[in-house]
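User: Structure with protoporphyrin IX containing FE, tokens only please.
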Amino acid sequence: MSATTLYERIGGATTVDRLVDAFYQKVLADEKLRPFFEGVAVERLVAMQKEFFAAALDGPVQTSPFDLASIHHNMGITRDHLTRFVNCLVDVLNSETGIAQSDAVDITFRIATYSDEVLGGAGGTDG
Ligand code: HEM
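Assistant:
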């Protein structure tokens, strides 16, 4: 057992802020993902995503649990979108020098775990 949480090990709020900011820059730069975020208050979304990451990495929990299935319901998100989204995260983690490879894999796994919720009932296609 490790004495610290994943959140503490990677550097806490400072690192999560930096990661999530860089992550969304990549997501919004992706031509297939960007349309989903048109008209969305991205600053608020990024702030919520920081809360989500903190909780997922065993850091402080400040919000009630997110209902990811309802949030992403009927957006038309496919497995391909999901893969691109997670790849943005992998790219960001790969360019981080201060995070151990095993922690980077753990972070990716913890976020990708929510894929089925995000895809919901309609997301089983490869489209
Ligand atoms: C495992 C993958 C994902 C996770 C964990 C995740 C998580 C979240 C979270 C925590 C929020 C904020 C909820 C809130 O504002 O209260 C959110 C919102 C949102 N997500 Fe995701 N998401 C994922 C994948 C995706 C993908 C692949 C897309 C689109 C291609 C997407 C599009 C959106 C949009 C457009 C919003 C804003 C909804 C709104 O404010 O109206 N998400 N997501």
